[in-house]
Amino acid sequence: MLQFIKDSVRELKHVVWPTREETTKYFVIVITVLVIFWIYLFLASTLFSEWLLYLKNMVS
């Protein structure tokens, strides 16, 4: 177990960490995609619900 931890720490020293600017840019991209996806799901769900209610009212 101790060897595993030592190897992990050694490997983490090889990682190239993103800069603050890159992290901010990626964060904004992720939030933007999430908002767009949320809007799409909201509209699709609303339209599908309205369509089902319309069909229900047509049958009744």
Molecular structure report:
By secondary structure, the protein is mainly α. The chain has one domain (2-59). It is 85% helix and 0% strand. It has two helices and no strands. The protein has helices at 2-12, 20-59. The longest helix has 40 residues, at 20-59. The mean pLDDT is 96.
Share of residues in strands = under 5%
Overall 3D shape: elongated
Number of domains: 1
Report the uncertain regions.
none
Summarize the main sheet: none
How are helices and strands ordered from N to C?
HH
SS-derived structural category: mainly alpha
Q: Termini distance?
A: 68 Å
> How many helical stretches?
2
What value does the average pLDDT take? Answer: 96
Query: How many E-type strands?
Result: 0
Kindly state the percentage of residues in helix.
over 70%
